[in-house]
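Meet our chain:
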Amino acid sequence: MLDREGHIHITDFGLASVPFQGDLTMTGDRIGTLRYMSREQLEDTAAVDHRTDIYSLGMTLYELLAGRPAFDVASRQALMEKILRTDPEPLHKIDPRIPRDLRTIVEKSTTKEAEGRYRSAEQMAEDLRRFLANRTIVARPTGLTTRAARFARRNPSVTALLVILSLCLAIIAVGATIIAWRSSQHARQEVARGMQREAELQLRKREAYARDMQLAQAAVDRAQWRQAETPLLQWVDDSQDFRGFEWYHLWGCCHPRDIERSVTHVSWAWSVAFSPHGDRLADVTAFSNHVYVWNRQHPITNEPEFRLRCGSLGSVSCARTYENLLCATDQQGAVYVWDWNRLNDGNEKLGVSPGAYDVALDPTTNVVAVACADRSVSSFVEVFDRVNQEKLLQTPRLAGSASCACVSSEELVVASSEESHLYFYEIPTGKESRRISLAGNATCFVVTPDRTHVALGLVRDFIAEVEAWIEIRELDTGNVINRMSVAASRIRSLAFSHDGRKLAAGNEMGRVLLFDLSREELAFSRVSSRLLHDGAVVDLAFTPDGRCLATAGADSMTHIVTLSEHGIENLGPQVRRRKLPPADVFGVAYLDEDMVCTSRGTRFIDFWNPKTGEVTDTWEMEVAHGDWIRLQAHRGRKLLAAARMHWPPNVTDSGRVVIWNYDTGEMLHQIDLPHAVMPISMPFSPDGRYLAVCIGST
């Protein structure tokens, strides 16, 4: 109650109690207004003491601050349940302006558990005085742990259920964690196995790539360019590009820049002949009844410009050009003649003996000489008047395969592969005029364009070896002008250039030899050679200007080769080269498909693009005794090691190995080797962490 002076008076409405006063509220009595009663007053088993009055006072203070009862329910039973089980709504939710310390005092005095309240009304009064004086109160806000413990004591069944639920959740969480860990382990193992499988696949692919490069290299070494292309093409459209310098090098070897055109046939290429202007090439293949004519100005395809039909069976064996005429022989017994300028106008046919395989015309093109095989054990030559189609001469049979040439309209020259003589016949009389003895059997021969000399391919067989050579003789006297020994392989074909300054020879191993001849004595001034076919070089022909040479081979290939100042030598893949100052180049290291480095002299390391041959960078090193002799690269870690050589030996100066990061150019290590003369080998470990150096020392 509040008096006129503003003082508060507490009257006993069944709410207050004084200790040890028997006529007031006694311990254990259920007396008072229900909404101010504490929990222990409603529980018969609980002890009721002065802390019950503190609770009632706190509830009164709560109601004053909140402006409403703590438990505002109409039912008595519901109110009792609220007092027993539920805490009042926090004051800060009702009115946030209520100070925190005051809320703490009310909360402490109205807690359900008696032991949690103030021990006496004096303590509560002291905290209220402290609050009014703006001093720190003694009571502290109830913590989360305390509230949880109170809730557990008030609601044991709910707490037990929550504990069980928490344990279940914990078990589920632990189980899920274990399952997730195992799944993660399994996933990591699968990833590791996948990486291992990928590494094994990469290794197998690289091994397969290396095998294919070896197969291609072996095929290139045998001039089997079509076979070499097969393993190379397998790596063009692969999902991962493994191609390195070796692939591009081998591909360049299969497509040399001086090979103007290569024609692939289904059987042997037997003969080649250029047109008078050199713009077309005719060739003949085994088991064919056509002469194929290729236009050099047309795109490179395997489709000829003309297919000149000769007979009904596959028996065409030779093609030759004389003046403006293209001549071909048919083993069924015919010679066909076309005008190079009118190939569409049909041909002229001359009947000869069966087995015709070679033809020659005199300078007037009116006399035709034909070499015919007789059951492949002997051969003979027939001569006809082309105008009257009259046979003028037939030579006696010769052992082996005969070759013929008309020196003039009155003289025929014949040689045979199993005969060691050169025979001369008078065409008008049909008689042998003379013969020249040879030191070996003539496998082939050709007359110079001015018909004054003859070049012969000769062979002499011994028990354990074969001696082969080329002779140039005068036709008039038979004297030997020059003689050139060749490799131990029979010369299969010969051809002079139109000016007589070049002589080409093809052997049975597929190699073509090109001789430059001096103008005075037809001396062999220079020789170049090249492996062009995987089999015998059956025929050769020069273009009229002598700049190109056509070859026909037993590997079913016809080539047109552009000759250079180096003759017929292979100039390698189509790359550009840069001339460097004179210096010794010792070391080389392959960095990647676009970079190769080489050491040069004592100061320089050059970096090249292997596809173009261009120098992309040059490192200039400090001047030191010795040359950079050995280079080694580790491509995974981009390391480049270089070792110096001392020669002559220098025991006072140590050897040296320097290691760089070739991507950045940073020098990483510099190692001195005691008294090193020459580093013999210098490999990196697979992971690039170690470098082993084997040296030769003084």
Observations:
- DSSP finds ten helices and 39 strands in the chain.
- The domain at 34-154 is CATH 1.10.510.10 (Transferase(Phosphotransferase); domain 1).
- Confidence is low (pLDDT under 50) at residues 13-18, 20-29.
- Residues 3 and 9 are 8 Å apart (CA to CA).
